[in-house]
Each structure stands twice: as structure tokens, then as C-alpha cells.
Amino acid sequence: MIRLPRRVSLVAETAATLKEWIAGGVLGETLPGELQLKSRLRVGRDTVRRSLKILEHEGWITAGQQGQQRRALRRSDAPARPAADEKLPVTFLSPRAIVDRIILLEMDDVRKRLAEQGRELRYLAPNIFRLRRPERHLSRIVHDNPSAAWILYFVGERVQKWFEDQGIPAFIYGTPSAKSRLPYVVNDWESAAFHAGVQLARQGHTVIGVMQFAGPMPGSLLVAKGLERALATIRPIGTLLVFEDDGTPAGVVRSLETAMASEQRPTALVFNASNQLLTCLSWMVSKGLATPGDVSLVSIPSDSWYQELHPPLCYYQNNSNLFAHLVGQRVMELVETGEVTAKSVRVPLEYKPGATIGPPRLA
Asked: Could you state, in order of their start, the residue ranges of all structural domains in the chain?
């Protein structure tokens, strides 16, 4: 009796079914087309394609080519792969330890999917990302941490390019650099920042400050780009002032003091991270400043503790469930086939209006 795939880890189950059919002579040397397999397997066409990619990656069938049907390979012809390779972990590479609850929850979907295959999700935060040439250390890190795939979080253009040039299976959790061709899922920071800039411009703000990461990182560049687009819609064109976050509360405070003491003082501040906002709020209390009377505040990313603030903060809420699903889908395809065929995605954020935006105080 021909076995049909069970509805658990459907791509992996479908691939296992195809292997059984090939080994048992059910399919013959020349495989049927995708539509016929779809009908026989009773699964969707995307599932068939991803399953065939697994078989191609593992050496069961020939690569798909335009106008040619795939052929089954004799198992003696298939490239040898160490059994350990099939259970290698996926490594989440980040410049710093991941403690953010939202990120951990989003990655929990990936962790559960990997656990079904007997794999683990491993977090790695080597202290190399502030070095001028981090590439020198990446070879050792990759060698010392064999992985089925790498998830790159908050890494710059040089690191993204290195993984791409080495042909190492990698996926970007966040914003790709302008030249990167690696697959990614990212929140749409630029659109959110544009919307924030428009809200501020409508209140009369013409000088806006943004706290940008030292580097700078691709995501914070997109926030600045969105704000510049918004300020270009008013006449005369507004001014965007960029202040650096060096990764320390003291550095954020120095930038805030520089901003508020400058001749062209910003009447609104936009933040790229919740820790920047927290430092700003505590600094404002120490200086007797109020929002929005003295300065309007907007945070582009969200955090769970924002709901505890009074007055309520203006910020942008990410869709964690959708984001986690999209990330998990693409990471599993990368693990199973060595590449991602699904399109990269920019996920919209939802504006959460609050009481921290108001008109600038007249001099």
C-alpha cells in the first residue's frame, strides 16, 4: 500500500514519502511533474516544491531545470553526507545577548519547529562586531560552531556580505544592508518612521532629533530615511538632527544633553530602541522636563512595558505572531533545502497613538 504523508511537519513528511516512493520504485527513474505529484500526494504545490528541494539537496534527485523532468539518482551516486549534518543546530548570531522578551517569543516558533526535527536553536553573541574587520573572526566562529543555518540579527553590511560570499546558509532577522541578497523578514521601519514624521510635522515640528545606533545599522538608517521623507513634505523643508547611541546609558545622556543644548534644538525626539527611551525618560525627570510640553517623544519599536507609562507613549506595535510565522517558515526552508524560495517581507507596524506628541512650545 502506498503511504501518503501525515499532516505533521508537512514538507518533511512529504519528502520522506517521496524517498519511500523512489526507493520502492513507485515513481520510476523519471519523476512526474509537480502538478501530478501534487495530486498524488494530496498536498499544495509549494509543499511539493520545497520537498523536491530537500531531495535535491540530499542527493536523491537531479536539480530541476527548465523544460526537463527531474530524475531519481541511484543512492550510490548521491553525495555522501555525514549523519550528524542532519541534526546540526541553527545558530542565532547577534552582537549582544538576547534578553528582549519579544524577540525570544518570536524565535520560540522557530525553536519548536526545529525541535520536531531533533535540532536546537543556539544563541551566540561574540564580541567582534565593533571591530574594524570582524570577518577575520567569523571563519573561526563558523568553524567552531557547525550549524545547519545561521540567523543574523543586528549585524552590519560587512558581516552580511561575508556570509553571502562564503555561501553559508544564512537568513537575516531584521534589516538587510542595501547590497545584501540574503533572504530576510523585517518590520517596515521606514514606513513607520515616515508616518511618525508626518504626525510630528502636522503638529508644527520642523526640527526633529533621532537617536541612531553607532555604526550605523541598516534599520536605524531606514528610520532616518523615513523621517527625512516626512520632513521633505513641509515648506520650508524641516531639519533632521542625528544623535549617536554608543550602546551605553551615559552615551545616550551625552547625546541628549548635546541635542537640548544645541542652537537648533529639536522639539521632538524619535527613538530606535526601548532602552534609549527609558534613559531619556529618566534623564528628563532629573532635568525637570516634561513631555510633550518641553519635547515630544515617539518610539518606533515597541516594548511590553510601554503600556505602563503615563502619559501613554506614541509608538509602533509590531505583529509578533505574523513575524514569527514568516521567520519560522523561511528558516525551516533554509534548513531543509539550503535556500529560501519564499519572498523576503517587510511587515507593517501598527501606530499606537498616545499623549507624548503635541505642538512645540513657542520660544
From this structure: 10-77, 83-187+320-347, 189-317
